[in-house]
Design brief:
One of its GO terms (molecular function) is orotidine-5'-phosphate decarboxylase activity. With 305 residues, the chain is of the alpha/beta class. It contains 13 helices and 14 strands. It has one domain: TIM Barrel (Alpha-Beta Barrel), CATH 3.20.20. Helix 6 packs parallel to helix 7. The chain binds orotidine-5'-monophosphate.
């Protein structure tokens, strides 16, 4: 699967992933009102609003980018109706030939991880049939439980030719609280990085492994160390834009071949119409503002490659 992502990145010249993290606060008034008028102030109304919002954004950006990353929490908050909007969004992105990174940060004891893996990137057996549930191409993984919690994802990844991004060094302000703690003289995130390389060794798909790593844009010195420790691991890099990460901060995430990282921006793209820079495009044309924000992001990243 990583090979497909790389091919799409090379075709679009955009090492970019648009984060589909719809919050009701970001949805333009006219879209929200239409959905709530039809379904009332209900979970269905909210789910319809986020679906319509996503669809408009996808329609405006799909030809520019290789991938999207829907964050499941933004859907899950609306319960089953929200999850239906998640599935609808994943299906629509596939129709538009986009690869979908499901951001669910799963990881538990082995048997539970197996069920998560089946739900998100694998198949679930019902009688004689094997059925897909969420059907994303990649999934984000929390490795806190260790190898037996990660292995079921790696196995499904191999069987189904899917991909993973395992949290190694996250972008948030408290990420150092545990991740930077020294163990045997080395920060914990480096220990995790070594494990990610090990977990991915049997899942090579060309130069890179289908088992990738999440490395936040907000700690560039650490990205640089991690890039050297994990030369054949693809990085999913969140933190650009809304969290303060700049193009210069991203440079160490890439290898000399210009590959090795896919950069996510969620609020910076989907709520672009609210930014001063794009305000004149107008809330009515929020999809157009997102398109312009993607064009600007791609140019900004290519400037440092
Ligand atoms: O796994 C992630 O995607 C992730 C890891 C991380 O270290 N930091 C991080 O922000 N994320 C996700 O990336 C997205 C960032 O959103 P923006 O800050 O709006 O671009 C959210 O969906 C986060 O959940």
């Amino acid at each position: 699967m990583i090979r497909q992502l790389i091919e799409k990145i090379q075709k679009t010249k955009a090492p970019v992933c648009v984060g589909l993290d719809p919050m009701l606060d970001y949805i333009p008034e006219h879209v929200l009102k239409r959905a709530l008028d039809e379904f009332g102030e209900t979970l269905e109304g909210a789910a319809e609003a986020i679906w319509q919002y996503n669809k408009e954004i996808i329609d405006h950006v799909y030809d520019l980018i290789p991938s999207v990353k829907p964050q499941i929490a933004m859907y899950e908050q609306f319960g089953i109706e929200g999850l239906k909007a998640y599935v609808k969004t994943v299906k629509y992105c596939h129709e538009k030939d986009l690869l979908v990174i499901g951001d669910a940060k799963r990881g538990d004891i082995g048997s539970t991880s197996s069920a998560y893996a089946a739900a998100h990137i694998g198949k679930v057996k019902v009688g004689s049939k094997s059925l897909s549930s969420f059907a994303t191409d990649f999934l984000t993984i929390n490795p806190y439980l260790g190898t037996d919690g990660v292995k079921p994802f790696v196995d499904v990844c191999k069987e189904e030719d899917k991909g993973l991004f395992v949290l190694v060094k996250t972008s948030n302000p408290s990420s150092g609280e545990f991740q930077d703690r020294l163990i045997d003289g080395q920060p914990l995130y480096e220990h995790v990085a070594q494990k990610v390389v090990e977990w991915g060794a049997d899942s090579m798909d060309g130069t890179y492994s289908n088992v990738g790593a999440v490395v936040g844009a907000t700690y560039p010195e650490m990205s640089s160390v991690l890039r050297k420790l994990m030369p054949n691991t693809y990085f999913l890099v969140p933190g650009y834009g809304a969290q303060g990460g700049t193009a210069e901060d991203l440079a160490p995430c890439f290898n000399e071949d210009g590959l090795g990282a896919v950069i996510n921006s969620s609020r910076g793209i989907i709520a672009a119409y609210k930014q001063d820079k794009y305000k004149k495009i107008g809330a009515e044309n929020f999809g157009e503002a997102s398109r312009q924000a993607v064009i600007d992001m791609v140019a900004d990243i290519n400037r440092v490659l």
